[in-house]
């Protein structure tokens, strides 16, 4: 039986914490959701709003969760009760979120793995055929097979523990991911294409669409939509309200500069998100124009393979390294989600890491299979309160991202801002005499502004705003 002591302060230092946390933050949301929203919401306008919110709203929620973890040395399920005995219920919510997200995240990770294998086998040209993606996800056994492979990779890393599993693999995967992202982003800027009408579009023109703000037809309601999209994206980008940062914070050594580490995560994550946009927006613009960006979630599995196919022989290679990069990003995020629920079992029931990882991986895999079957034998359509229509995967995504995550973050702000008081967090942030430059901003955000914004996000998710 492993002892509780082995589960805490296990990151070797600041670098291990930052890379693991950044790996969690840099996931599928950064790779396809961020570029899609940027293109939809006026390019540079979305980027400007996102950066402002990342430095204020996102920073407040991120540093609060890391602080709760390090202060209590507990996982999300048990940490809130240690802050205030009457708030243990919030830990249950914080556990449910990653428990709901992990199963369908593994399914999507399986989709990425399928495409990576396709390009590895020089079958990228097949991936552009109409109905390829739909045919794959609606088949009964293929999605389950690839989900098993992806989930197994995540399980092995978590099973090995924090320092020898999560930290070690993050130090390998994250540098490789950055190199690939930079390469594809640079390559996208210099491609060009002439369509049937004789019009030529270049990657640099696509970059202009991405970076230069567009105010054409912008209304107050439209600007509000941009702000809500940017706030929603921050949940994906910074792994907020998933219990992840509480778990990772609990593994941070007390002598590590917490504020500096969180700043580094912000910089790393925002940089990758911007580069993801540079990878995708110019390339899609060159071959599909602005209309191509309307693909939304289908952008990565339907539109981009067509872009790679248009590049000729090198397209197979670009497609391969792109999906390998997405696979790395998905894997580092999946590992952090599984770790959040695994650590909760360790702290709540005093189980060993091995037992906790096996139980959580097995129970969530059952849900993953149900999600896969939701596109064939268990197929049905459900309309959500916000007007969206979807299957089992979409329902789990809606419940976790539109309802539970805003509730968790809202109540966390109430707990730290009004019940335990901001001093509880600030004392932990500055425990080694560190300077907290954004202290005043933090107090205002945690007490007033962040709760209001989160309440608006919740109302929007419920279709009431």
UniProtKB/TrEMBL annotation:
<dbReference type="InterPro" id="IPR047218">
    <property type="entry name" value="YocR/YhdH-like"/>
</dbReference>
<protein>
    <submittedName>
        <fullName>NSS family neurotransmitter:Na+ symporter</fullName>
    </submittedName>
</protein>
<dbReference type="Pfam" id="PF00209">
    <property type="entry name" value="SNF"/>
</dbReference>
<dbReference type="GO" id="GO:0016020">
    <property type="term" value="C:membrane"/>
</dbReference>
<keyword id="KW-0813">Transport</keyword>
<feature type="transmembrane region" description="Helical">
    <location>
        <begin position="172"/>
        <end position="191"/>
    </location>
</feature>
<feature type="transmembrane region" description="Helical">
    <location>
        <begin position="358"/>
        <end position="378"/>
    </location>
</feature>
<dbReference type="InterPro" id="IPR000175">
    <property type="entry name" value="Na/ntran_symport"/>
</dbReference>
<keyword id="KW-1133">Transmembrane helix</keyword>
<dbReference type="InterPro" id="IPR037272">
    <property type="entry name" value="SNS_sf"/>
</dbReference>
<feature type="transmembrane region" description="Helical">
    <location>
        <begin position="143"/>
        <end position="160"/>
    </location>
</feature>
<feature type="transmembrane region" description="Helical">
    <location>
        <begin position="441"/>
        <end position="464"/>
    </location>
</feature>
<feature type="transmembrane region" description="Helical">
    <location>
        <begin position="89"/>
        <end position="113"/>
    </location>
</feature>
<feature type="transmembrane region" description="Helical">
    <location>
        <begin position="234"/>
        <end position="251"/>
    </location>
</feature>
<feature type="transmembrane region" description="Helical">
    <location>
        <begin position="398"/>
        <end position="420"/>
    </location>
</feature>
<feature type="transmembrane region" description="Helical">
    <location>
        <begin position="12"/>
        <end position="32"/>
    </location>
</feature>
<feature type="transmembrane region" description="Helical">
    <location>
        <begin position="272"/>
        <end position="289"/>
    </location>
</feature>
<keyword id="KW-0812">Transmembrane</keyword>
<feature type="transmembrane region" description="Helical">
    <location>
        <begin position="317"/>
        <end position="338"/>
    </location>
</feature>
<keyword id="KW-0472">Membrane</keyword>
<feature type="transmembrane region" description="Helical">
    <location>
        <begin position="44"/>
        <end position="68"/>
    </location>
</feature>
